[in-house]
Recover the amino acids of this structure.
């Protein structure tokens, strides 16, 4: 595909507005940064500093993770609403009532208890900050303003259900909606009206929180426009089972199923995410209004929107809700079951999305992807993702693609929020196979894992649950002989071996570095691999800020610990990683000039 062809696709009017220049960008979770005024976590006022950072490093896209209000796991992809913004991101900077002496004293106290800049966000901050926001709400006194009422009326589709859900959830001490009394769980309208009447103040507070976050976010969007920076949002494919969406519209979901992903070479048991899958027939029966309203609300904040797990729109891995949790994603099925329906299913939903918004849509098309998915994305003018560590010729050369061979209609990157950062991948994962996957495959073929392990893998270079091949395993025949099975029986072993053996050495040949390959990811190696993706043919190249920061020494020790999320796990270390430098100081670092030089030399803006 060439640039001019983008204008003839269903996304053509978006491309005409944004332009077809090759752009660079930064991916930065808001919780991962902070300013000197932040209280324990980055906030919406800090977005302006992030926009300044993009401008300073010569990049014109700022990509955020979902900004929806998260639930108990703090995962933005398991949110309690497809609409509501996370109130933790509200800034006190823009609230006049926060200037009052008693409020200022409380802010100072909370800042002392929850200092920003630790390696991980302490989410026990949430309760403290909400209490302080309540004080501000009570002090504000303009809760009947015309602008406030206009916001409530304009967002009637989701707002009233959401705030009622939140107040009921607080009333029940945080219990999920499906454990409430039947009168509320099953939405008895008379009982809900009585509850609303007796909890007017709490309901008003929840509406005020959303209005406040909305105003702060839209102001940041206007500021980005003034600086020539596009904001890229993220539309999660799913929503939490314990969410306002599911409570208000159970007919839109298959509550007997849990979504996930099938096993692959990077995840031995697959993944079970737990969120219910969609009942698309129910959504279609309502004219797809639920989907259209999500996109309509997103237009307030974003120029570009990433469709999370886009293949799930074509078919999604579905696991019985009663399946034992320990089996993770092993025992599931694709829905729709009939493969012949996948293409029409995906095309219909994507068509509705494109017809319902003026945002440029992008798509996360990673994992096991049937060819109908990238074919449809290309037809619709929607960029996919090309992640450097996976962008290979998997069938013939088993080698990394050269920059000029990346897809034009794609977003190139070194890492995602679900992977290790690039330095950690280089030091711990490149050239390895997942040990749990290898054990399971051995068990399936009646191969003695303990017997073959040390014959195939180097124990001194295997770590973090990854097995590094011995240099001596330099042919398929040696592998087959050690496994002791016919070639046909171990075809999948051979395929994994071909794509991981000497993987680091293969990538080294693509980099402009003299001398023998180095195991540690120093700044020179990181610089060269960044240049590789920036030079790619991809129309966008958006890198994790974390990966750029490995050009300097901000992060100390093993890079493996600096990770945003480990899929399939629930941990306080997930969705909480913090860059240990305030944004005001980072903007003064020499690294900003270094990044701008690398970006400019690639011809991107």
């Amino acid at each position: 595909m060439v640039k001019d062809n983008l204008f003839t696709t269903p996304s053509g009017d978006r491309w005409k507005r944004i332009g077809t220049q090759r752009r660079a960008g930064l991916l930065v979770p808001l919780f991962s940064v902070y300013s000197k005024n932040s209280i324990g976590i980055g906030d919406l006022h800090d977005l302006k500093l992030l926009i300044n950072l993009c401008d300073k490093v010569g990049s014109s896209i700022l990509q955020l993770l979902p900004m929806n209000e998260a639930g108990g796991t703090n995962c933005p992809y398991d949110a309690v609403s497809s609409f509501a913004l996370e109130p933790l991101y509200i800034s006190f900077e823009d609230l006049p009532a926060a200037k009052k002496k008693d409020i200022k004293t409380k802010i100072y106290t909370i800042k002392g208890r929850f200092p920003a800049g630790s390696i991980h966000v302490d989410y026990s901050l949430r309760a403290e900050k909400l209490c302080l926001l309540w004080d501000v709400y009570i002090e504000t006194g303009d809760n009947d303003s015309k602008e406030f009422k206009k916001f409530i009326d304009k967002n009637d589709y989701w707002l009233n259900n959401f705030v009622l859900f939140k107040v009921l959830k607080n009333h029940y001490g945080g219990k999920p909606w499906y454990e409430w009394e039947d009168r509320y769980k099953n939405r008895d309208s008379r009982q809900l009206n009585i509850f609303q009447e007796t909890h007017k103040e709490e309901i008003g507070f929840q509406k005020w929180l959303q209005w406040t976050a909305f105003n702060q976010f839209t102001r940041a969007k206007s500021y980005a426009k003034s600086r020539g920076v596009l904001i890229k949002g993220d539309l999660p494919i799913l929503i939490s089972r314990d969410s306002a969406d599911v409570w208000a519209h159970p007919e839109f979901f298959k509550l007997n199923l849990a979504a996930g992903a099938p096993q692959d070479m990077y995840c031995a048991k697959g993944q079970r995410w737990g969120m219910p899958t969609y009942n698309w027939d129910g959504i279609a029966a309502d004219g797809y209004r639920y989907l259209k309203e999500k996109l309509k609300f997103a237009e307030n904040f974003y120029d570009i929107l990433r469709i999370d797990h886009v293949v799930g729109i074509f078919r999604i891995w579905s696991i019985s809700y009663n399946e034992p949790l320990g089996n993770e994603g092993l025992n599931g099925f694709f829905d729709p079951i009939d493969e012949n329906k996948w293409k029409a299913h995906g095309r219909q939903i994507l068509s509705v999305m494109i017809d319902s918004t003026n945002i440029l849509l992008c798509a996360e098309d990673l994992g096991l992807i049937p060819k109908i998915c990238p074919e449809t994305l290309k037809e619709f003018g929607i960029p996919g993702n090309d992640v450097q560590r996976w962008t290979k010729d998997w069938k013939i050369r088993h080698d990394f693609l050269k920059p000029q061979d990346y897809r034009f209609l794609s977003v190139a990157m070194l890492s995602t929020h679900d992977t290790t950062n690039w330095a950690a991948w280089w030091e711990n994962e490149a050239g390895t196979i997942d040990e749990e996957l290898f054990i399971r495959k051995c068990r399936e073929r009646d191969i003695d894992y303990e017997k073959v392990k040390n014959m195939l893998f180097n124990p001194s270079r295997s770590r973090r649950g990854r097995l590094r091949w011995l240099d001596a395993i330099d042919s398929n025949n040696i592998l087959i002989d050690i496994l002791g099975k016919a070639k046909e029986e171990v075809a999948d072993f051979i395929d994994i071996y071909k794509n991981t053996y000497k993987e680091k050495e293969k990538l080294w040949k693509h980099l402009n570095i003299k001398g023998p390959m180095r195991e540690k990811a120093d700044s020179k190696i990181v610089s060269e691999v960044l240049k590789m993706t920036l030079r790619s043919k991809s129309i966008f190249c958006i890198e994790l800020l974390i990966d750029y920061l490995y050009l300097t020494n901000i992060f100390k020790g093993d890079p493996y610990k600096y990770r945003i999320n480990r899929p399939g796990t629930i941990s306080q270390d997930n969705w909480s990683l913090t860059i240990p430098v305030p944004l005001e100081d980072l903007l003064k670092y020499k690294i900003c000039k270094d990044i701008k030089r690398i970006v400019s030399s690639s011809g991107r803006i």
